[in-house]
Design a protein that fits this description.
The complex is a heterodimer of chains A (about 220) and B (about 325).
Chain A lengths: L2 H24 L3 H26 L2 H29 L11 H18 L1 H6 L3 H4 L1 H17 L3 H22 L5 H29 L13
Helix pairs in contact in A: 1-2, 1-7, 2-3, 2-8, 3-9, 4-7, 7-8, 8-9
Chain B lengths: L1 H32 L9 H11 L10 H20 L15 H21 L3 H32 L4 H10 L7 H17 L18 H4 L5 H26 L11 H27 L9 H21 L2
Classes of the chains: A mainly alpha (about 220), B mainly alpha (about 325).
């Protein structure tokens, strides 16, 4: 792989990674959000595989494929099952309306670029230069987690943060050890499973997954 | 230099004569897809001829902004048609009009029309003007920022040089910055030219119309000018979109007369294809609620901003 194609492929994967995060913020239908999250998993896989192919590291490519199977396959499948069981289709009334949150995302992107400049300056390779993208997705995921009301969109916010942390780890280091990546992935899987059970219980108890309704005591 | 002048002349003629035909093609495609026979692609020209023959008449109590608006809209559209690289990248006017000037000229036309609508003092005029300004406030920065993202790679804000650089290296379009900018520009093109899902050009329903509300008081030759100008703006936007992201066949510096003539044909083909795609897409889409439009435009602005960030930091 020549330098130019490597940079172009890496940048494309990072662009797709960022674009899916923005679209998650934009769309209201929960089904579309889950679908976009799966697309982001594919972009993350492409990112890791491109890095692995560049370094000629078979283990990294395999880790990438494993990450892809989890984040583009298993997690979206679990979330879709929770969605079908719930039947609730839309994110109604987020705390910050969608137009404002898109503009906030623009500010967050600028913040991420400003914050990651010292990091990029340490070793200005094409991979580290893409770290601001991962940081932007991290901040967008956190924003989603804070401002959305439905359990599923908060879960997607959490998973976006996790995707971003994984991407940043692979972009800054020359490869995360298999044990560490396995640990993180199992952690995420467990979190999703627990939240899925929690969502089902919440629906059985309250008839909805609007988390704001849990703040008050009911008798 | 001579071919540059020839190409510029040809592209002004092509935009001036071809844009009503483009509108006709789009209406015909729409009609066919909806199962109607359609009036034929020459209908916009026939409408314009009919309107031009009528007696010029102005609404009672209107002043000079109302009279000047159609001339300004049509004039700015013609100037922009001469400046942007559609047929040739070496327009003689390229040195004095870069991307900022082009955006400002387009905005001048929109603002003139909004002022003309306000001048009538009717409810519809004011409503249309305020809606148009709400859309414009997000559209103009998005156009500026997304084309600016493309200009960073080239190091110049001249549209001609941006297109020339893309002609020399067509694969540079496959970068995050270009892709994000392309999506942002496509959305603002739809918003600025008043197509579905932002505005419906075929309706006069007071709850939804934006552009039609502004031109409601115009009649006769003035209305013809406004309609012609909005058709020209549509073809300029579509042409600019195709030139910036798919500049195949455009005449660069040193091209011969034949290349310029061929470039006109290629331009007509590309714009026609984009127009057909736009019209076909409109059939399958419903108009957005007016309150959801700022959301769409804020999204396109964010994409444009990310395009600039990507072209600045990833390169």
């Amino acid at each position: 792989m020549t330098d130019a194609t490597f940079v172009q492929l890496l940048d494309l994967a990072c662009g797709a990674f960022l674009l899916t995060a923005v679209l998650v913020l934009w769309r209201r239908e929960l089904a579309a959000i889950v679908w976009l999250f799966a697309l982001q998993g594919i972009a993350l896989t492409a990112l890791i595989v491109v890095l692995g192919a560049r370094q000629g590291d078979v283990e990294l490519i395999l880790i990438g494929l494993g990450v892809g199977a989890l984040r583009a396959g298993l997690l979206p499948y679990l979330m879709r099952r929770a969605l079908v069981a719930g039947g609730g289709g839309r994110e109604t009334q987020p705390l910050v309306n969608v137009a404002t949150s898109l503009l906030v995302a623009a500010v967050l992107a600028m913040l991420a670029y400003a914050l990651s400049q010292p990091l990029v300056r340490l070793s200005p390779t094409p991979a580290t230069q893409a770290v601001p993208v991962a940081l932007t997705v991290l901040l967008i995921g956190f924003f989603l987690l804070v401002t959305r009301r439905r359990a599923l969109s908060q879960l997607v916010g959490f998973l976006l943060m996790d995707n971003a942390i994984t991407a940043a780890a692979f972009l800054t280091t020359s490869g995360v050890p298999l044990v560490v990546e396995l640990g993180i992935s199992l952690d995420v899987l467990l979190a999703v499973l627990v939240l899925q059970v929690l969502t089902t219980r919440m629906r059985a108890a309250f008839g909805g997954t609007d988390l704001d309704e849990l703040r008050e005591l009911h008798d | 230099m001579v071919t540059g002048a020839l190409g510029t002349g040809l592209q002004v003629i092509a935009v001036a004569l071809g844009s009503p035909l483009l509108v006709g093609v789009m209406r015909q495609v729409r009609a066919r897809l909806e199962g109607r026979a359609g009036p034929g692609i020459g209908q916009p020209w026939r409408d314009l001829r009919k309107l031009l023959r009528k007696e010029p008449i102005a609404a009672h109590g209107t002043g000079w902004p109302f009279r000047a608006a159609p001339l300004l809209v049509a004039g700015t559209a013609l100037v922009v048609a001469a400046v942007v690289p559609l047929v040739t990248t070496v327009s003689p006017l390229d040195g004095v009009a870069d991307l900022f000037a082009v955006t400002a000229l387009l905005a001048l036309g929109s603002v003139a029309l909004a002022l003309g609508a306000l001048d009538t003092g009717t409810a519809f005029g004011g409503m249309g003007a305020s809606r148009e300004m709400a859309v414009l406030a997000l559209v103009e920065p998005t156009i500026l920022v997304s084309v600016f993202a493309l200009s960073i790679r080239v190091g110049s804000t001249s549209l001609g040089q941006i297109v020339t650089a893309t002609v020399e290296d067509p694969l540079a379009v496959v970068s995050p910055a270009s892709v994000l900018a392309a999506v942002a520009l496509a959305i603002v093109t739809i918003a600025e030219t008043g197509r579905i899902p932002v505005d419906n050009p075929a309706t006069h329903l007071e709850l939804t119309m934006i552009h039609e509300a502004m031109v409601l008081e115009y009649a006769g030759p003035d209305l013809a000018l406004v309609e012609w100008a909005s058709a020209m703006r549509l073809s300029i936007f579509l042409g600019l979109l195709s030139s910036l992201f798919f500049p195949v066949g455009i005449a660069t510096a040193g091209a011969g007369v034949l290349a310029v003539l061929l470039s006109v044909l290629v331009l007509v083909g590309k714009v026609a294809i984009l127009g057909v795609l736009l019209a076909a897409g409109e059939v399958f889409m419903a108009k957005l609620r007016l309150f959801r439009v700022p959301e769409l435009l804020a999204g396109s602005f964010l994409l444009a901003l990310l395009a600039v960030a990507a072209s600045f930091f990833l390169a």
